[in-house]
Amino acid sequence: MPLVMCGEELLLDELLRLAAAVGCDLQRVPDVAAARRAWATAPLVILDESGARSCVDADFQRRDHVLIVCGQDPPPDGLWPIAVRLGAIDVVALPTRSAIVAEALADAVDEPSPVEGRIIAVLGGRGGAGASVFSAAIAMAALRRGSNALLVDCDPLGGGIDLVLGAEAEVGLRWPELRLRGGRVPVSSLRSALPGRIRGDARLTMVSCDREGPGPEPEALAAVLQAGRRAGETVICDLPRSTSEVALLALDRADLTVLVVPAEVRAAASARRMADWMTDRGIRAETVVRGPSPGGLSPGDVANAIGLPLIASMRSEPKLANTLERGVLWHRATGPLAAAATTVLDMVGARFSQVVPS
Question: Does the predicted TM-score (pTM) go above 0.85?
Answer without folding.
Answer: no
